[in-house]
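Subject: for your reference before the review

Hello V.,

The reviewers asked for a structural picture of the protein, and I figured it would be easier to keep everything in one thread rather than splitting it across files. Below is the amino acid sequence we used in the manuscript, unchanged from the supplementary table.
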Amino acid sequence: MTTTATSTAGGKLAGPADYLDQRTGVGTFVKTFARKIFPDHWSFLLGEIALFSFVTLLISGVFLTLFFVPSMNEVHYEGPWAAMNGVEMSEAFASTLRLSFEVRGGLLMRQIHHWAALIFMASIVTHMMRVFFTGAFRKPREVNWVVGFVLMILGLAAGFTGYSLPDDVLSGNGLRITDGVVKAIPIIGSYTSIFLFGGEFPGHDLIPRLFTVHILLVPGIILALIALHLFFVVLHKHTQYPGSGKSDKNVVGYPLFPIYVAKAGGYFFIVFGVIALMAATMTINPVWNYGPYDPSPVSAGAQPDWYMLFLEGALRLMPGQAEIVLLGFTIPLNVIIPGMVVPGILFGLLATYPFIEAAVTGDKREHHVLDRPRNRPFRTALGVSVLTAFFILILAGSNDLIATHFDLSLNDITGVFRVLFFVGPWFAFWVTKRICLGLQRKDRELVLHGHETGRIVRFANGEYIEVHKPLDAHERWLRVQHEAIRPLEIEPAEDARGVRRKGYRKDQLRQRISRIFYEDRVEPVTPAELAASHSHGEHDAIAPVDEHAPAQLTGTGGGQHLVDPQDETAPDGRNR
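And here is what came back from the structure prediction:
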């Protein structure tokens, strides 16, 4: 009965499918795409969380658009929230109250939308951290890294324009800060502010403009870039973590259809369900407690969403006296540096790092196998230091809440964060780099001597030794497969005829930077070292080995293969 029903259903779909295929050629694309192999690892789901939370944003956003009124016209509220009855407010704020208290399911949809936005940004940032620390941005994925970076910036723009729409006190304070940062731009700042706000702040055009940007411009660009991002993922094939049987020439995993189609479908409902559960049980952005925007009241404890909090923290840490007068113009460095320079450095470094690393290493090969973060100590330490600066700024953006909750001095907290902003990233860099180098040394120790077992054996001559359990071929391969990247070697400044070589200064600069990247390193175990360790000191002479040949590693006394060719479980016969 089941077979008949399936065949009937297949026959009904065969006609339309054939019709569509003959006119679009979509069948070849679907067949190729369905056979695409994807590796299976939990960290790859971070990108899917971002995608599914964005879909949730679109679904809830369509609902909210039907009831929200993007207008700054003044009205007097009359509704079920008694505390606001008779209060003058904008139509935008009044419609937000109606959504929250009068539209069936309106408050739930508002909170789903807000929580989805927070999770969308959190998953993007975490996904980019995974890509950065594992080196997934290397050739040929540099352009896709830039696409992901632009998606993150657009996510910030979408979040900022979204939580500014209700026109409440909290969002109004954020817009006032934005107006101050824009006006701090020398010469053109005031003109730019008038252009954005349609006149003197707050003007009458801002909410309608933000609404257009929020529901039309930014989502449209995000959708286009998501499609481009996924296209590059399919085009370049998916990266995979190092392990036996995995190389830059293959992908070990499961096909998209039916495995990952089923997984992705179920995972979407899990993500949506978690967001809905959070929205139903955790209140967020209760604008009715804040009231409509009024420029006069500014209360403590007013923070933006977490992904914009680092800008708030930078502004709070900057001393207010940092101003200079140049040619009759006041240059407010106390706004320009935290509002523009600090974000510019953080985002600029993030966007250009793949190109910087490629230029420093001179590596032009394609990479599809990911790095273990411990094997790239400088990159890992740099990423941790940037994250440390980011989290310090986030905490600084809540210095008033820290002061009130822990009964501490606000000035003392601000002073501590000012010191930490400069000392913390450097300390985190140093600690992380030492940890990575220590883990590499631990890997060498494991490869050469194996795991400690705690068993002590006594020889006939009275010598005591601890018995070590050797690593299997797969575990050993994971610890020796990476390449030892060394600082660049450059040609001499002068050629054989004594003529100064063109481009020497540029090469010298690259060499100096490469030393910063790779001078501190731990070399992976070579086949000769492994053979020597297995000889247990009984023989000093080890036969020389060609490290590039998959031949046997033999020694005059007890030398063993790095990966035994006779072992069918060995990942391959390469020495590295």
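For the response letter, the relevant points are probably these. Residues 11 and 99 are 47 Å apart (CA to CA). The longest strand covers residues 451-458.

Happy to draft the paragraph if you're swamped.

O.
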